[in-house]
Amino acid sequence: MISRSTWLHLRVAFSFFLLPVFLFALSASADVQVGSVFLVFVILHFFLYPASNGYNSYFDKDEDSIGGLEKPPTVTPDLYYVAIGLDVIAISLGLLISWEFAVMVFIYGLVSKAYSHPAIRLKKYPFVSWFIAGLFQGFFTFLMAYLGINNLKIIQLADFAILFPALLTSVMLWGSYPMTQIYQHEEDTRRGDITLSIKLGISGTFYFTALIFLLSVAGFMVYYTLYHSFDYALLYVAFLLPVLFYFIYWLLLVLKDKRQADFHHTMRLNMISALCLNLFFAFMFYINNQ
Questions:
Q1: Are 98 and 148 in contact (CB under 8 A)?
Q2: Longest dimension (CA), the chain
Q3: What pairs with residue 66 in β-bridges?
Q4: Residue 54 to residue 58: CA distance in whole angstroms
Q5: If we measure between CA atoms, which residue out of 161, 153, 119, 114 comes closest to residue 136?
Q6: Per-residue pLDDT tens for 121-154?
């Protein structure tokens, strides 16, 4: 039997926050097959991401809040084996799509393990972990999803029309990533993990995110203007207005009281951001398939 602690640490619901990458890849795809779309979705969000969550939780052994889990329970030995098992299932299911997709799933799993494994522990290195996490959760995952959804060969991904949106997903995540660390300063410092958010400081994290957010929005506007129309670029901005309003509201709170940089505000920002992006990319998929 899988323990309750293990189920909680897999944080399956947390995959919702990574869903925009998949939906963006889907919205940029043409002539998709329902079977491939469903299989890629299940592999990523019900096996690969939970495996990564569980594996990292096993080695982090967090006592304070983590993404999607306010009060993480004590990890149990079965968490390690369940995480490895989910990885194996993800790779095996990936072979039903193609060996290239399965290899990409395998590579993603290796990189995610390096994040917290004590032998490497990328989390200790603020800029390296920030760059690699954003690169693989964004650029690499977009390409992986796009390849699987469209049944492509890896060589076919070498197209600017594919690489450009893939890069934009990383820019988007490079902006949001430090915000996910902002409430963990105390525990990360205690464990010796100097994250980028710790380096930037609480106020610096907000300003850094604001700068990258502006670059990301500019990039998406260029993308939608090039491949759709300027109207869709403006629509993208309109969908993100709730994110901007909440971000400013939270920043003003934090400038008055740094204790407001907490778990609850972080999760609300994540939820608003994911919801707005998911709705927009789902809408674009609908438009593209009319």
A1: yes
A2: 54
A3: 69
A4: 6
A5: 114
A6: 888 899 999 999 999 999 999 999 999 999 999 9
